[in-house]
Amino acid sequence: MRVTKYVVTSQDSDVLPSDIAMKIYESGHEINIKETCFGVIIDGEEDDIKETVNEIRAIDPNNIFIKDRGFPPGDSRRCRGYRGGGARPGFYMIEYESKILPLISQGLASDELDEEISVPEEKKRPSVERIEELIKEEFS
Amino acid sequence: MVKVMVYPPTSMILADLVERMGHEALVVSKEVRKKVNTIGLDSPPLNMTPEDPKKGLKYAAVDVPSGVRGRMALFGPMIEEANAAIVIKGNSCTLGCTGCARTNELTRFLLRTKRIPILELDYPTDDAEAKRFVHKIRQFLEGLK
Amino acid sequence: MIRIAQLSCGSEYSGVQTELQKAVDSVGAELIYPEVSLEDVQDVEKRFGIEVASGDLNLAMARATRIVENPDIADAVFVATCFRCAEGAIVRSEIRKYIHENSSIPVLSYSFTERTTAETLLTRMEALVTTAKYKGLLSRERQTGLTAGIDSGSTTTKSVVMRDNEIIGTGWGPTTEVLKSAEDAYNAALKEAGVKKEEIEGLGTTGYGRHLVGKHFGAKLILEEITVNSKGAVFLADAQKGSATVIDIGGMDNKAISVQDGIPGTFTMGGICAGASGRFLELSARRLGVNITELGQLAMKGDQTKVPMNSYCIVFGTQSLVNSLSAGSKPEDVAMAACHSVAEQVFEQQLQEIEVKEPVIMVGGTSLIEGLPKAMEQLLGIKVIVPHHAQYIGCVGASLLVSGLLED
Question: Looking at the DSSP assignment, which residues form a beta bridge with residue B86?
Fold first, then answer.
C-alpha cells in the first residue's frame, strides 16, 4: 500500500527541506517528495518509506519528527484550494505541535546526554489564615 | 515491538517518539488511510458512510450522537489493538477526528479500563518539563520491550 | 454562485457530508470552509464569548467571527451539528443568533443524524439560497400588472389572480392528481377574476408540486414555500416594515420564519410529523364527527385543560382523545385539546429556534381553524394575527414576486 508521511523539522534545526529531499534522492527509492512550509511530505510504497524514514531521521535525530498522513499529497478532498480557503482540521494540530518541537528537541538532546532530571517543585496552597492576612493587607 | 496507542491519536510528537524507540504507534491517520484508499467508496472527505456510526454502536448506544459513534468507528479498532498507551492530559489542539469532547472522554476511559500499561502526562511548557517529558516517555517505552 | 459557509461538527464522521454536498450542488451553490487561524480558535472565548470542550465547535464559532468580520467571504451560512448533542445545540443556536445580529447573512441551522439525506435538506437549502440570491426581488412590496400564483400543496391546491396589488380571483381544491388539481384551482381563480389564461402576464408556482406544475404552465417563477409563504403572509397582514414572525402550519408539515422589512430571514421547518400539522386536526375532526371547517368553532367553546394529552404523536395523541371521549369528556374540550397539542409541539420545537417578534402572523389552511391560533396565542402570550386569505399566502406570495420579474 502507498503510504504518506510528513517530515517536520523543529524551528531550531539547521536542516532544510532540500537537505531531506537530497537524502531521499540519494537513497534511490521511488519516493515522491513535496516541500511544504513545515518540511516535506513523502509518499511511496510502504516498504520503501519504512527504510527511508530511519535514514532521514539520522540526518538530525533530535530535530526531525515524522508523522503519518492519511491522504496522499495534494488530495482534492482535503486541499484548501478546494475548500474555499480553510485548512483541513489536521493542519492545526501540526501547527500546534510544531510550536512545542524546540522544547522536545532539547528534551531529546538532554536525554541523550543522560542529564539529571529535576523534580518539579510542589506548589502548596496557601492556608486560610494566610489568605485572611493577605486580604487584611490589601484592603487596609 | 509493542503497539502503543497515542492520545490524541493525531499527535506527531507522541507517534514519533514511539516509533523512534522501535514500537508501532497507533494513530488515526492510519485508519483514515485505509478508508480513503478503499476502492468503490466515494464519500468525501473521509469516505465515511452512515455504516460507520452503526459500527460505532459497539462502543456507544444508539441515543449517543452519530458523530461520536462515527469517530469511535475509527478509534475503536485502535483501542482494541493497543497493548499500551500514552495519553496527554489537559488541553491540546483537538480538532477534526479529535474534535468531539465526548468521543475523547470515551476513548480515554476505554484505554484506562483496558488494563494495559498507560502513561499520562501533560505537554511540556518549559525546558525542565520537556526533559521530564521525554525521559518519562523513553523509560515507559523501554519498559515495554 | 452562492457560497455557503459550512460551520459544523460531526458531519464527516456521521457519513452525511456527501448528502450535504449533494443538497448544496442541487441548488447550484457551493460549500466553503472559511479560513481561520489557530489563534482564532484558541481565542474563541474572547472573540465569540464561549469556549466549549469540543474543538470542532470552537472551530465553528471561530469561523462565525471571521464571517462577521469579513461578510464578503460567504453569502449564506449553514450551521449543523449532531442530533442529541447538547453542546452542539447550544453552540448552533448561539452562532445563528450571533450571525443574525451582526450581519445580514442568512443562516440555516440543522441537526443531522446518520440517516439524514439530501432530500430532507433540499427545501431548506433552496430557501437559504433564495434568501441570499434574491434579496432584491424579496424586498418587493407591491404586486403590479396582472399575475397569478399556484400553490400545489400536499393536501390542497390553491390559486389566486391579482391585479394592481389586489386579489381579484381565488381557486381552491383538494390535491388529488397534481396537474388536474392545479388546472381546476387555476381555472376557478381565472373565472372569478373574469380573465383568460392568455392575459396573465406572469405565473409563479410554489408548494410540493411546484416544479411539475410550473413546467406544465410555463411559470416564470418557481420558488419554494418558505420564502414565498412568508412573503405572502407579511403582504396580507400589511407587516412589510419592521420585524414579523410567520407561523405556517400546513397539511403535512410546519414552518416558522422570521421576517425583517418584508424579507424572510431565519427559518425553521419541522420534520415530517403528522402530530404537528393539519393532519392531526383532520383526524380529530373525523373522530368527533364534525367537518374540519367546523372544528375551529367547536374548539373555541372548549377547555383543553380538561383533556389530558400524553403525546404529540398522531397515533398516541388520537388515542388520548378517544380515551377522553369514552370517559365522558365534552367534544368541545377534546377539539381544543387537539388544537392545543399541535400548537404546543410547534411552540416547543420550531419557535425555540427563531426569534419570535410581533406581529405574529399565522397562515396556511390550518389558521382558519379558530382553535389553533387561539391555542398559539395562549402559549406565546402574544396576539396572533390571521390575515384575510390566510390559506392563499403561497399563491399570493408567488403572484407578488413574479410581478417583480416582469419589470426586469
Answer: B6, B119
